[in-house]
Amino acid sequence: MNKPSILVARAIFPEVLQSLAQVFEVESNQADEVWSAAELTRRMQGKVGALTTGSERIDTALLQANPQLRIVANMAVGFNNFDVPAMTAAGVVASNTPDVLTETTADFGFALLMATARRITESEHFLRAGQWTKWSYDMFAGAEVHGSTIGIIGMGRIGQGIARRAAHGFGMNVIYHNRSRLSAELEAECKASYVSKEELLKTADHVVLVVPYSAESHHTIGAAELAQMKSTATLVNIARGGIVDDAALAKALAARQIAAAGIDVFEGEPSVHPGLLKVPNVVLTPHIASATIKTRRAMAQLAADNLMEFFTKGQAVTPLNTVAGRTA
Length: 328
Ligand code: 8YV
Description:
With 328 residues, the protein is α/β, with parallel strands linked by helices. Helix content is 38%, strand content 14%. The protein folds into 2 domains: 5-98 and 293-313, NAD(P)-binding Rossmann-like Domain (Rossmann fold, 3-Layer(aba) Sandwich); 102-284, 3-Layer(aba) Sandwich (Rossmann fold).
């Protein structure tokens, strides 16, 4: 029997690719070339499944050009690169990689918060540039982390992971804002209090964004919100580009309207707003919150398992949609 054909759109761990090759005829991209939408659509021809990352967009045009497609497995928990309603309408299963990256991403959120509040990269640049000639009492004096107030916007699994670290590890006062309130048990576990977005922005010493991207969450933080924050506050975005208005943030940082920011995700990444590159009070990282070998391997394996289970057992492991009358 012929093996089903799939496309693996980006380079992944060779051992995961090998496990896919046991079940599928695989076209891969181990050279990790950047494909245009047209090239992705062309490569998708004849494929019944695909493994993508957040960089590949699955939309109506691609689906219409590929009516044979049955499942696309994203190697990411976020799936704003998928038009899920269009996929459901086209009878294509969508899946993501929840859970396996929660703790690693929460670790990174905390690392970025610490680096930002304590001005770690800014001071390292100063040292490397040979500017350190003497100690002084206020040299790179930053903001306190332990005992301060952290405001988390988006209290899903990763937000809760950050809250636990903040409350239990650093004795922080945790406030959060979310579409829906957590259960009393979860609030107690995270030692977190629900507040309005406005109160959070006004009160928090550190604002951390972990909200999924959608039309509603676009520019959750813009000029108006930055103006509500304390002038001593830090802002951390590990959610998605577009949750923050990067142009407004660059202006606010330059004007010291807020003290500092730590940003892992950008509008239009891998491009970065030039204003952010100019200001010293921002820590910039290239979308690496889930980047540990163990976690990236687990993400790749879960994406591969979604494809394999769908074709061998008729059901993806972590599907995002229900496709009527569809079994492999
Ligand atoms: C991925 C992410 O590294 O899982 C997500 O949603 O943002 C990151 O963990 C990235 O999207 C690659 O697919």
